[in-house]
Amino acid sequence: MARKTMLSVLALAAIGSLGLRAEDPTGPWFTGIDLNKGSQSISGDLPGSKGFSIHAGRTFWTGFAGTGYRLTAEVGTLSDTSQLTQRDVKYTQAQLGGELIVNTPVQNLKFILGVNVNKLKVSSDYDSYTSTADGLVHPAGNTSHTIEGLKLGGKFGLEYFVDRHWSVRCFYQIVEAGTSSEQVTMDNPLWTNGGSVGHYHDQGKYSITPAWLQLGVSYHF
């Protein structure tokens, strides 16, 4: 009897050392990967972009009706390079955040709401063209801008816990990147000034609010 009791105590201690309680839906640690698709409903340069991200973190289950919270880390990228429009957009980020995990009426389906801080860089470069009366296509100009720094963001979505080790998720993320200087240079054969090619150069402000949809999978341990 004493031996069985000792074995039971050791088993409980082992589970406790892993941070996993019998009523917890998953283990405390997780890692996974997401596929990202830029949103077309938010202003900015990411509507046609695609990419991926890798995430990891630590979950703290409250023991109350499957709710909890977690700390997360994520690195990811989005890009859109088009030979047709000569459009080159790149977005990279490293993210630290916190998320609330809330039950839904559907078993094993959780609602996720999070806030985060992002170390990001958004760079965009456009080449534009124009046609003259002789039917030839000429380069008309270039527009480029870069935004980088620490920016706040948020996310919300759903995560379905298949079992104690696997879950699938669908999130919507948005980051307020802010504004930066924008360089615009135009050389248009249709603009003439005393017979010379028209030239235009300007510097202004550029604003972007990147947003994207994530579909991913996580492994919990």
Brief sketch in words of this structure:
Keywords: Signal. InterPro entries: Beta-barrel_OMP (IPR027385), OMP/PagP_B-barrel (IPR011250). This protein has 221 residues and is mostly beta strands.
SSE order, as H and E?
HEEEEEEEEEE
The biggest sheet, with number of strands, parallel, antiparallel or mixed sense and barrel status, is: 8 strands, antiparallel, barrel
- Strand order, sheet with most strands: 1-2-3-4-5-6-7-10
Helical residue percent?
under 10%
Total count of helical runs of at least 4 residues: 1
CATH architecture: Beta Barrel
Note the gap between the termini.
Answer: 32 Å
The number of E-state strands comes to 10
Nearest-angstrom radius of gyration? 25 Å
The residue ranges in which pLDDT falls below 50 over 5 or more consecutive positions are 9-20, 186-197
**Total number of distinct structural domains:** 1
Structure, explained:
The chain is built from one helix and ten strands. It has one helix spanning 2-17; strands at 29-38, 50-61, 68-82, 87-103, 109-131, 137-161, 166-175, 178-193, 196-208, 211-220. By secondary structure, the protein is mostly beta strands. The protein has one domain (24-220): Porin (Beta Barrel), CATH 2.40.160.20. Strand 4 (87-103) and strand 5 (109-131) form a beta hairpin. An eight-stranded antiparallel barrel has the order 1-2-3-4-5-6-7-10.
